[in-house]
Design brief:
The chain has nine helices and no strands. By secondary structure, the chain is an all-alpha fold. The protein is globular, with a radius of gyration of 20 Å. It starts with 11 loop residues before the first helix and ends in a 9-residue tail after the last helix.
Length: 198
């Protein structure tokens, strides 16, 4: 149970932080106005002064988790130029986050990021900026960049989803397979420009 907050001094930040605590402790199903109000030691109407409804609460929390996730991913790559190493580091950081905070990861990835949404735009820009750094050596066209980003995202999120579902039961370890996939992706990126059938 979090420390009670007086309703009159409550801020939207308090609500978001309490919601994240609830999700970490109990999973995504705890992301509701009533549960968060209990965590704060207040009544639900006090929360509605800062969050319109449950869907708005989920959105605010997902956006905050995205910001924290990206800050975590960007921290170890500051000043780095090697695109392959950038990709490896962020891929491992992202997977470690998903393993350490599965509930937060589930809430985060359940929210589609729309570039035209003012709240999502900075997050999308951060993600695209990372991919531009990774793909810069290849001088891709815009269309080729989109193909590459989708390929990389499918591999990252697909592997994590498979792992979280408990489907990676064969030897060798998932870590070994993840490294093989990353190495294969790095090699595959350069073939995006090859015409179909070659």
């Amino acid at each position: 149970m979090g420390r009670p907050v007086k309703a009159k001094s409550l801020t939207q930040r308090d609500v978001i932080e309490a919601a994240i605590v609830c999700v970490e402790a109990e999973g995504p199903t705890a992301l509701g106005v009533n549960r968060v109000a209990r965590e704060l030691g207040i009544t639900p109407p006090s929360i509605y002064k800062h969050v319109e409804h449950g869907a708005a609460l989920r959105r605010l929390v997902a956006l905050e988790i995205w910001r924290r996730f990206l800050a975590l991913c960007c921290q170890p790559i500051e000043g780095m130029d090697d695109s392959s190493e950038l990709l490896r580091i962020v891929a491992h950081t992202a997977r470690n986050f998903a393993r350490s905070h599965p509930a937060l990861y589930a809430v985060m990835t359940a929210m589609p990021l729309q570039p035209t949404d003012p709240d999502c735009a900075p997050i999308v820009e951060t993600i695209l900026s990372f991919y531009q750094r990774v793909l810069q050596p290849y001088s891709f066209t815009h269309l080729e960049t989109i193909h590459a980003v989708r390929m990389l995202n499918a591999a990252f999120y697909g592997f994590v989803a498979t792992e979280q579902a408990g489907l990676l039961t064969l030897e060798p370890s998932p870590e070994a397979s993840y490294n093989v996939i990353l190495n294969a992706l790095i090699q595959a990126i350069q073939h995006i420009r090859q015409p179909a059938g070659e």
